[in-house]
Amino acid sequence: MKKPTVLRRRYIPYEVVDISDDELLYRSDDLLVTRWSSIKSRLDIHGGISFTFITKGYKVGRFYDSERNFLYWYCDVIETEYEPVTDTYTINDLLVDIKIYPDGRVILLDADELAQALEVGLVSSAQAVKALKTLDSLLKMIYDGNFPPSECNGWEY
């Protein structure tokens, strides 16, 4: 399987990070599955597995500690740009996130950052609308008991 270049773009704070060194486990037109370790050393998380749903507009991550204990699911609302000539994915973080703990607690994160990014022109109104619609579908999936997506099953950290 050919390994693409994968860039992660954040708007607040603005940064573009090359995450191509993550281990590519699976690739299709609709899904990238990667295994990764934290870029910066952290006490709270060690690494995880990410499922980038390219056409659905979200990335689902399973986060683990240094003892390989599952900590939580983390969902990023994203948009993905693909450049076939260079085989490069740019994953744009649309700021709003959801964290789901094993006990079922669901926490919505960074809605204020989406508002700020829209207010100062870091994201367009079309991107904000897309982010909110994607957030809504993720929350419905979670509250309806259909989370995680079936594609997230069967992968080992």
**Number of discrete helical segments:** 2
Largest sheet at a glance? 9 strands, mixed
The count of β-strands is: 9
Listing every helix as H and every strand as E from the N terminus to the C terminus, the arrangement reads: EEEEEEEEEHH
Instruction: Classify the fold: give the CATH topology.
Output: FomD barrel-like fold
Number of domains: 1
- Distance linking N and C termini: 20 Å
**Which oligomeric state applies?**
single chain
Query: Helical content, roughly?
Result: 10-25%
The CATH class designation is Mainly Beta
Mean pLDDT: 95
Indicate the low-confidence ranges by residue numbers: none
Global structural class: alpha+beta
What would CATH call the homologous superfamily?
FomD-like
| C-alpha-based Rg, rounded | 15 Å
Molecular shape? globular
Strand share of the residues? 35-45%
Q: Per CATH, which architecture?
A: Beta Barrel
